[in-house]
Amino acid sequence: MKFSDRLGKLSPYPFVEISRIIAEKRAAGVDVVTFGIGDPDIPTPQPIIDRLLKASQDPPNHRYPETDGLPELRRAIAYWYDQRFGVKLDPDKEVLPLIGAKEGIGHAAFCFLDPGDVALVPDPAYPVYNVGTMFAGAESHVMPLYERNGWLPELDAIPADVAKAAKLMWLNYPNNPTSAVATEEDFVSAISYCRDNDIALLHDAAYSEVGYDGYKASSFMQVDGSAEVGMEFHSLSKTYNMTGWRIGMAVGNADMIKALFQIKANLDSGVPQAVQEMAIEALTSSQDCVDENVAIYQRRRDRVLKALGKLGLRTPVPRASLYIWAAIPEGFTSAEFAARLLDETDIVVTPGSSYGKFGEGYIRLSLTTPDDRVEEGCRRLENWTMPQLSA
Ligand SMILES: *Cc1c(COP(=O)(O)O)cnc(C)c1O
């Protein structure tokens, strides 16, 4: 039997490997504290669960859903965009439910890319932009993100021939893994760049609702011209602690939404309807649960920043996202540093290099760990003697 070349090009999905190490350690009786994967530990709010229980009793929900979802869900998504961002969307043309943002991001590549085409992909970044590009047979042109630029791509640094060849650009703010945020001007420049070069601009807004100290991210769709060049991907996962239920959405340019619908209609059969009802509940009810979650993450953020400070790691204060992105001392790769930390303190963090080579020199700590475990992890960090370069 011979598997495809594309399978051979895949490195192990970072969190599959981390989950395996954690499981091994735990099986050996080790008390592991994980700041690894970004997967909210707090349960889905009860009213959303109650809606699922009710919806599960309704026989029409036992059957295949439509790929484009319940009209009521598309309207709920449009309602939420209007309430939250003041953005008006046509629920029938500019909204598409997804089986999680990850699914839509992966499939979006097939809408724009043919073999040999080029996509502009940030680095460090959520791995799916690059992998989706590769699955479509296309090439990623890396847009390096640097701390000195606030982790925003340098559009002027993209060679003119690459700009001409590129079909697609990915952006993600608030950013995973760097926790950087983008301003409206940043979106304006990206939109004008993509319009000038006839590039589809796809923005991943999975963390728009997790902002600290009163910070509220804006939507790419609020910016003039966004609907001409692009789509925005969103997820209920991080906002409502719903990673396990698998639901998100794409919104924006009607032709692009239709293209994504066509790809999906041939590959999946949409989101289970009972889960769609959960999303309707989440998007149209009180949003107090979101503020409550953010307050919890903010306390954890401050606790972890204090521990990292004591340890001597230089760490900017994140304004958004579920992550702390910390520079590590020189002389270690991020993988070596994470391995030492795991070895010596039984703490799991993600090496920056898991998000691409420009993530080297950093580690990512996720705040999706229960308070008492955060406290335990912070105590261990504070008592750890960070490895020094041997002279
Ligand atoms: C978590 C995450 C997603 C995936 O969201 P799902 O809706 O759970 O698939 C997408 N993009 C980024 C940057 C993420 O961190």
Comma- or semicolon-separated keywords:
globular, binds pyridoxal-5'-phosphate, three-stranded antiparallel sheet, 14 helices, Aspartate Aminotransferase, domain 1, Aspartate Aminotransferase, domain 2, 391 residues, alpha/beta, single chain, seven-stranded mixed sheet, 41% helix
Roughly how much helix do the residues carry, as a percent range? 40-55%
Distance between the termini: 51 Å
Within CATH, the superfamily of the largest domain carries the name Type I PLP-dependent aspartate aminotransferase-like (Major domain)
Catalogue the ligands. pyridoxal-5'-phosphate
Report strand order across the widest sheet: 2-8-7-6-5-3-4
The CATH architecture of the largest domain can be named as: 3-Layer(aba) Sandwich
CATH topology of the largest domain: Aspartate Aminotransferase, domain 2
> Which residues sit in consecutive blocks of at least 5 with pLDDT less than 50?
none
Counted by DSSP, the helix tally is 14
- Our Rg estimate from Cα atoms comes to 21 Å
Strand count, sense and closure of the main sheet? 7 strands, mixed
Mean pLDDT: 95
